[in-house]
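> Could you send the Cytochrome P450 prediction when you get a chance?

Sure thing. Input:
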Amino acid sequence: MGWPLLGETIQFFAPNTTSDIAPFVKERMQRYGPIFKTSVVGRPVIVSTDPDLNYFIFQQEGQLFQSWYPDTFTEIFGRQNVGSLHGFMYKYLKNMVLNLFGPESLKKMIPEVEEAAQTKLKRWSGQTSVEMKEATATMIFDLTAKKLISYDSENSLENLRESFVAFIQGLISFPIDIPGTAYHKCLQGRKKAMKMLMTLLHERRAKPRKEQSDFFDYVIEELQRKDTILTEAIALDLMFVLLFASFETTSLAITLAVKLLHDHPLALRELTEEHEAIIRARENPASGLTWKEYKSMKFTFQVINETVRLANIVPAIFRKALRDINFKGHTIPAGWAVMVCPPAVHLNPDKYQDPLDFNPWRWEGVEINGASRNFMAFGGGMRFCVGTEFTKVQMAVFLHSLVTKYRWQTTEGGDTVRTPGLQFPNGYHVKISGKK
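Output:
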């Protein structure tokens, strides 16, 4: 449990460059087994790397467990953020988000996603090199911010993206709010972004639009209903979380996919053949992607599944025990936090042969319609990520545009963290050029 009050907080937040299970977790798994206890930021925490317990936790959401995050995370994302709400309020917000990211909306959104990808790729091909993570994050942020709040980065007086960059840099840092620290910069980034969102909300409420043109219009309509349970605070925290979640995680996944495909020519060849076959099957090769074509991309989904399995973009998912719970000889005390650890599941050699290897063929014939005991890249249970399909659309459409029209190579400026297994992109630079 570490030191009094401090616990093992310093070890928990220590940065690492491995693509394997974080040393903090791996060392304790080897010493204590798949379920162990620790203390982080003043709270006792049960860490679960056990697939059965993880699945049990997700299935018992609202009964034996509820969503919970440390006070530092709550401070960062807002006390009324969707991850901290429960019961009817959570379901209400989830349905609101599905209005934006549900299948019917995504069908209409595919042409916009494809246009954004093609426009950016054409621009990047004229540059000496591109830092993939930053470039794709900007691309996705611009598209999402337009759908959410009609934000136009090129014509706006304020750079909303800069506020999120500051926010992200201190998101997982030691929680000391002193000027100069990453955590302080994170809070300041949130404060600046929230101020802009609040100003926009008040402007829209003062002059509502006749027709809905973005998600903010829908939110304002909900706020004006007499029987609404939505408040301005909840609405603003929701917009903030949606803006953050929609671009940061997806841009990481796209960057890693590009890196992995570049390093595995056989996978790149099969992916390219799948997308070129889609174009050949059209009556008009120049026409845009359709929902039917998107749903036919079998190997593409295998690449996406393998990429997010290896990326482990969400290293921890927190819950809180509502009462004493007995599981496999362990007692989880009421009120204790439980940290589900997806990387330990996704990189388990008993479930995935050579777990650090990029092998999209391992997903051949595997249907994934939500989370399972051995795959929880998008969460699980009733809190399974509502933006999952949006992420897959973004990745699939981008890869379609990339492999059918362009080729790319790493540049000398590409700084890659090398590990015994996977080489994760860190400042990953590429040179993009058109196919001959």
